[in-house]
Design a protein that fits this description.
The chain contains 5 helices and 22 strands. By secondary structure, the chain is mostly beta strands. The chain folds into 2 domains: 222 residues, Sulfite Oxidase, Chain A, domain 2, CATH 3.90.420; 113 residues, Immunoglobulin-like, CATH 2.60.40. The chain is globular, with a radius of gyration of 21 Å. The protein starts with 12 loop residues before the first helix and ends with a strand.
Length: 355
C-alpha cells in the first residue's frame, strides 16, 4: 500500500479541495463551552452517505451469542446518556509542517466540543453477549471509497475493554438535536478522549472478531511514525494541547492580528486524552506566566483558561502551552511525524499592538 510522498511548498490543488470539504472550527468559537453544530470541525474521508433514518438498522454480528439488528427508534428507547466530549482530528496541525504529508491541511482548527446523546455501547454489547474469545470490536460505516489504492468502507476497531467503557456512546443526537448528515446521521460512535478517527460516523455494523482488525484505516493509517519503514504506534489518546482565541481584529487575507494597547483578557481551552489538564501557561515574546484555569468540568471535555495581558505597542508573539496531571507538557515545536499526526506543538500568534 503505497503512501503519498511528502511535499514542500505551496498547498496543492488536492489539498485545497480537501480543505473546502473538511472545515475547521474558527478559533473565535473557543469561547463556546459547547461548539454549535454548524461550527464543529468536520473530517469526511469519502462522500456523505445519504441515509433514511426510517430504514436504518444497526447490525451486531460476529462473536456474540445473540446477534441483533436494531432500528434507530428502538435504540432510542434504551437507557441513554448525554456526554460533553472534545474531539480532535489526529492530523490537526499538519498544515504547519514542512515537508508535510499531503492530506487535509489542518492548521489548528481541527478540534471542537459537543454534547452527544446516545446509548452506551456497553449496553448493546452486553445484550448481544459478546464472547470472551473476541479480540477486537469493529465498527463499520457506510462511507466508501479508495485510500492507498484500496477500496473499502471506513471502519475502525476498539479492544473489548475500551469498547465496554461506560462513556463510549452510540450517538443519535448532537447538542440536543438529531445528528446532521455531515456529523454521521442517523447513528455514529463517540469514543471520548481518543482522536476523532475512532468515532466512526454513519455506523451500520458492529462486528466482534477473534483477531486484531487489519482494515486500512486501522492497520495502515493513523499511526505515529518518525521514519520511513517504521511500524509506528497507533494513534489513540489525544495528546495534551491548548489553543487561545486570537485577540484583536484580523486582516482579511493574512489573518494578521491588530490589538489595541492596554489591558486585554486572553481566553482559551486546553485538553488531554491521557489525564486532566492541571496547568496552562501563557507567554508574550517568550516570557511565560501562569494562566487561571476554570473549574474542571467533564474529564472528556476541554477546560477553559484565561489570563490578563497588558499589551504594549510593538510587534509581539503570543503563545500558550498546557500540562496534564500525568506530567505531559506541550512541546515548543511540533513533534516529528511522517503523516503530521499528533501535532501538539504550542500555538503561536504574531500580533501588532497599535502605537
Amino acid at each position: 500500500m503505497a503512501r503519498r510522498p511528502p511535499i514542500v511548498g505551496r498547498f496543492t490543488r488536492e489539498e485545497v479541495g480537501l480543505a473546502t470539504r473538511n472545515s475547521g472550527m474558527p478559533l473565535e468559537a473557543l469561547r463556546y463551552d459547547v461548539t454549535p453544530a454548524g461550527l464543529h470541525y468536520l473530517l469526511i474521508h469519502f462522500d456523505i452517505p445519504y441515509a433514511d433514518p426510517a430504514g436504518w438498522r444497526l447490525h451486531v454480528t460476529g462473536l456474540v451469542e445473540q446477534p441483533a439488528s436494531i432500528d434507530v427508534e428502538d435504540l432510542k428507547k434504551l437507557p441513554s446518556r448525554t456526554l460533553r466530549v472534545t474531539l480532535e482530528c489526529a492530523g490537526n496541525g499538519r498544515g504547519q509542517g514542512t515537508p508535510r504529508y499531503p492530506s487535509v491541511p489542518w492548521l489548528e482548527e481541527g478540534v471542537s466540543t459537543a454534547e452527544w446523546t446516545g446509548v452506551p455501547l456497553a449496553e448493546i454489547l452486553h445484550r448481544a453477549r459478546i464472547r470472551n474469545s473476541a479480540r477486537d470490536v469493529v465498527f463499520h460505516g457506510t462511507d466508501r471509497g479508495f485510500d492507498r489504492g484500496i477500496e473499502h468502507n471506513f471502519a475502525r476497531s476498539l479492544p473489548p475493554a475500551e469498547a465496554l467503557r461506560d462513556e463510549v456512546l452510540l450517538a443519535y443526537a448532537m447538542n440536543g438535536a438529531p445528528l446532521l448528515p455531515q456529523h454521521g446521521a442517523p447513528l455514529r460512535l463517540i469514543v471520548p478522549r481518543w482522536y476523532g478517527m475512532a468515532s466512526v460516523k454513519w455506523l451500520q455494523r458492529i462486528e466482534a472478531i477473534d483477531r486484531p482488525f487489519d482494515g486500512v484505516q486501522q492497520a495502515s493509517s493513523y499511526h505515529f511514525r518518525r521514519a520511513p519503514g517504521d511500524q509506528g504506534e497507533p494513534c489513540r489518546l489525544m495528546r495534551v494541547n491548548s489553543l487561545m482565541v486570537p485577540p484583536g481584529i484580523p486582516d482579511f487575507y493574512s489573518r494578521r492580528r491588530t490589538v489595541e494597547p492596554g489591558a486585554s483578557e486572553i481566553y482559551g481551552r486546553a485538553w488531554s486524552g491521557a489525564a486532566p489538564v492541571e496547568r496552562v501557561e501563557f507567554s508574550v515574546d517568550g516570557a511565560w506566566q501562569e494562566a487561571e484555569l476554570e473549574a474542571q468540568g467533564p474529564l472528556s471535555a476541554w477546560r477553559g483558561w484565561r489570563v490578563q495581558w497588558n499589551a504594549r505597542p510593538g510587534e509581539r508573539q503570543l503563545a500558550c502551552r498546557a500540562t496534564d496531571a500525568a506530567g505531559n507538557v506541550q512541546p515548543l515545536e511540533p513533534p516529528v511525524d511522517l503523516s503530521g499526526f499528533g501535532n501538539n506543538g504550542i500555538q503561536r500568534i504574531p500580533v501588532t499592538v497599535r502605537g
